[in-house]
Amino acid sequence: MYNGAIGWIGITLGFVWGAALGLGFLNPDHLGGYASPRRRLLRLGHIAMIALGVLNVVFWTGAPRLALGSWEATTASAGLAAGALLMPAFCALAAWRPAFARLFPLPVMCLVTAGIAISIAAVRAAMAAQGGMP
Q1: I want to staple 17 with a disulfide (CB 3.0 to 4.6 A). Which of 46, 48, 58, 75 is the partner?
Q2: pLDDT: which is higher, 4 or 130
C-alpha cells in the first residue's frame, strides 16, 4: 500500500501550502480578504491536504488489524489516495476558476467509497471478535 507515502507527502505539502498562505496574512486584502471564496477554498485545500494525509497514514498503520478482504483493501486504498490527491487539487482549481467547483463530487465519491469499504471490514472484524461472524 502506498497510502503511507501519500499521507506523509500530503502532510508535508500541506504544511508548505499553509506557510505560503500565511505569507500575506498581515494584508487584510490578501487573496481577496478574509471571507473571500478564493481564500476560503485555498485554506480548505490546505487543511484537506493535511487531514486526508493523516487519514491515509491512519489507514496504512491500521489496515492490518481490520483484516480487509482483497476488494476492500484495494477499494479503500485507492479511494483514500485519490481523495487525498484530488480534494486539495480541486480546491485550488476552484479558487483559480470557480467552474472547477463542479468537480468536487469526484473526490467526495472516492472518499465515501473508501469509507464504505473500511466500514464493512470494520463491522466484520468487530463481529468476528465477538464470535458472531467468521
Answers
A1: 46
A2: 4
Encode pLDDT of 45-92 as tens digits. Answer: 999 999 999 999 999 998 877 777 788 889 999 999 999 999 999 999
- Count of structural domains within the chain: 1
Using one digit for the tens of pLDDT, what is the confidence trace for 7-48? 999 999 999 999 988 887 777 777 767 778 888 899 999 999
Residue with cell 468537480: 103
Is residue 60 a part of any domain in this protein? yes
Range of the domain at 60: 3-129
Kindly list the distances between the CA atom of residue 44 and the CA atoms of 37, 50, 97, in Å, as whole numbers in the listed order.
10, 10, 15
Cα→Cα distances 43→57, 60, 75, 128, Å: 21, 26, 28, 42
**Higher pLDDT, residue 68 or 93:** 93
For CA atoms 33, 107, 85, 1, the dihedral sign is positive
Region for residue 77 given its phi and psi (left: phi exceeds 0; alpha: psi -120 to 50; beta: otherwise): alpha
In a domain, 134, yes or no: no
Q: Examine residue 71 and state whether it is found in any structural domain, yes or no.
A: yes
85 belongs to a structural domain: yes
